[in-house]
Amino acid sequence: MKLFEQPAHVLHDMLVNKEITSLELTQAVLARIDEVEGDVQAYLTVTRDEALAQAKAVDEKIARGEEIAFLEGIPGAIKDNICTKGVKTTCASRILQKFVPPYDATVVQKLAAQNPVVLGKTNLDEFAMGGSTENSAFHPTHNPWNTDCVPGGSSGGSAAAVAAGTAVWALGSDTGGSIRQPASFCGVVGMKPTYGRVSRYGLVAYASSLDQIGPITKDVTDCANILNIIAGRDEMDSTSIDSVVPDYTKSLVQDVKGLKIGLPKEYFVKGMDPEVEGAVKAAVKQLEALGAEVVEISLPNTDYAISTYYLIAPAEAATNLARYDGVSYGERAEDAADLVEMMTKTRSQYLGEEVKRRIMIGNYALSAGYYDAYYLKALKVRRLVKEDYDKAFKEVDVIICPAAPSVAYKIGEKIDNPLEMYLQDACTVPLNLAGLPGISVPCGYNKDKMPIGMQIIGKALDEETLIRVAYTYEQSQSYYQDRAQLGGK
Fold this sequence. Notes:
The chain starts with 7 loop residues before the first helix and ends in a 13-residue tail after the last helix. An eleven-stranded mixed β-sheet has the order 1-3-2-4-6-5-10-11-9-7-8. Helix content is 38%, strand content 12%. By secondary structure, the chain is an alpha/beta fold. The chain has a domain at 3-260 and 468-481: Amidase signature (AS) enzymes (Alpha-Beta Complex), CATH 3.90.1300.10. The protein has helices at 8-16, 22-40, 48-63, 106-112, 156-164, 180-186, 220-230, 274-289, 305-320, 339-350, 353-366, 371-392, 418-423, 429-434, 463-476; strands spanning 43-46, 75-79, 117-122, 169-174, 189-192, 212-217, 260-264, 293-297, 398-402, 438-445, 451-457. The relative contact order is 0.14. Keywords: ATP-binding, Ligase, Nucleotide-binding, Protein biosynthesis, Transferase.
């Protein structure tokens, strides 16, 4: 297997044993970017010179006989809605196309302490609003397993980069499935931690009560290691949880004996791709064969989750995006007669259609006369969705369902039908409403060799059990070793 196809933990061992240098590794991944980026288009910015300089510095450290951290010298990428000091952070929006943050997000600071090689910033749906990475203002990203298909979204660039070998690891953000769904579509591992487990400071806000940063990796071992790095309380984020961060790598054990798995009937419904349902149920049977107990459960308010999400998220987005008005920073429209016209022209010219759509929905839901009927009612239903999970977790340890109701679809297939696109979030949105952790792991393919992801849902702050179940399943199969061939390249 080529260097760019290896997971970070294998590459770390190779660096420690001096079988490779960080410069060799970084050059191999940059060469892979040169080879396939034209087909995949996972990146918005590639920081080639900085990456090579970082790699050389790590090699010098190894040569001096010093110990290196887990990610030290290993090339990865960061979603372009996470602030990086001195490197453009555009949110894939024309309104921020020249924005260079004066500070690093907390997760970037935590990563920097490990001294990884950062290759650049990955593409996304504009302001993370979308599930296909077609809503980027700059270009769509293509799925490495079939470049005619979407990679999922909004963290499609991060998932595609890891799947294509143009990054060994990546960070994404998840507001309604934006890590787990692209991980499923691209055949990689993606985790949304418990809300508040990872600091959101420096993540450009979409829906503040739903957003969460998490890792996208080639396997569960890398996911556990990166979660170790980025998790923890942050004084700069009042919503981050003050709770001891366990060593997630201790959960990398193959043991699900006696564990109770809940299979929610509401997630296996008419309209779901039968190949997806079959692959996930086969994976559950495999876990059952390994000693887990499977019970059918009910999450009765699941049907209302999509409607609830698409009131709460746009309402928060309308508030968060009010700051993009051409006054303080970002692009500004010219030739305006007064302040109101300048703001109107700026937002009209520089924000994309999906962003405008969600701002309008949000402002409508928050407007006088409709607040109680829509937004307040959505908050009450959100509570019911959370209570469904609370009740279920009194009976079971984890819940398993698909990460997405279908495999990756063709670029352009759903972009003109927002409602159909929103329904793609049916399996992922409820977790964000409840603030729970979830992980997507590869569990098979459809007849066209497109990846399928199994989603494992856990109790709040119980990422350890998720990792244990995901790792046990992963190691019993070989899907995690498969790599996208990019048309035979």
